[in-house]
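Per your request, structure below.
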């Protein structure tokens, strides 16, 4: 299964960046497509289309990681720390590729496809948001592949 291609197709079908990323991991989350799309619906366009907050692709990736590494009990400090660590690591890797994580800043900078995001190269992605989406999925996949418990 090519999750990057799935996310790219979701975006081409009209789903926002967060929905596209989250939808690519439907099989791992235990949620339906409809549930994932509903959860991620407001995060597109830098939260509600404002283009001022966190990139929707980043939000979608953090949503997926939160579902896969859940913190569900208030007193579970280890669970909270793990969820935070996964989100922080994802953000670090995304910044390593694009130097930014805020939607508006990314839109102004328009970082392109490089050797740092080979899935976007492989899929022939040229549009800005498609690049963010495919790269976010690629990073989550890398993180999951590095975790023996998730392989």
């Amino acid at each position: 299964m090519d999750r990057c291609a799935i996310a790219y197709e979701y975006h081409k079908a009209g789903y926002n960046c967060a929905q596209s990323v989250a939808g690519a991991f439907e099989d791992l989350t235990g949620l339906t497509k409809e549930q994932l799309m509903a959860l991620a619906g407001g995060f597109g366009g830098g939260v509600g289309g404002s283009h001022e907050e966190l990139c929707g692709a980043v939000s979608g990736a953090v949503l997926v990681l939160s579902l896969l590494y859940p913190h569900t009990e208030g007193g579970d400090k280890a669970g909270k720390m793990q969820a935070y660590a996964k989100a922080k690591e994802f953000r670090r890797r995304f910044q390593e590729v694009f130097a930014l994580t805020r939607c508006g800043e990314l839109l102004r900078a328009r970082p392109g496809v490089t050797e740092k995001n080979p899935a976007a190269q492989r899929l022939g992605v040229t549009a800005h948001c498609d690049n963010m989406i495919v790269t976010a999925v690629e990073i989550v996949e890398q993180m999951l592949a590095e975790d023996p418990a998730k392989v």
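The radius of gyration is 14 Å.

Regards,
D.
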